[in-house]
Amino acid sequence: MNKTFPGRFAVLFCISLLFLVPSCAPKKVQIFDMPTGVRSDIVQIALAQQGKKYRSGAKGPDYFDCSGLIYFSYRQAGISVPPTAEAQGRYGAEISRGETLPGDLVLFKIRNDDHIGIIVNGSDFVHASKSRGVAIDSLESTYWRRYVIGFRKLM
Questions:
Q1: Which of 10, 32, 52, 65 sits a CA distance of 20 to 30 A from 116?
Q2: Is 12 one of the annotated active-site residues of the chain?
Q3: Greater pLDDT, 16 or 52
Q4: Is residue 2 a part of any domain in this protein?
């Protein structure tokens, strides 16, 4: 019997783990032009919730739905907002995508359901996904681009 087989197997196993582990890690995003103060606080609070599970109607701190993540993040930063995605989508001022800053809201309409997230940077947003819990996605993705209906500035 070849004595080097177990050693080769172990090396191949370790190398394969190097490729699997990064794909399981949460998405890292670059936060650029991040203003200091409340906007930064809101984004950092929302990002700290990554990986927490989705639960309809949940407002944190252990489970979130999309509006609950907004409600929780803003409240922790000292700003009161309405509790539902529909009401949050009418709150504050409507702005264009080009005017968004970290902490502003992005609104979606998916099969008659309102969905909402917090802008992280020029292309990414954090939200509570039914399938993945609190996660980061890109506004550039084909899926999200087709459902965007607007942006709101609450401060």
A1: 32
A2: no
A3: 52
A4: no
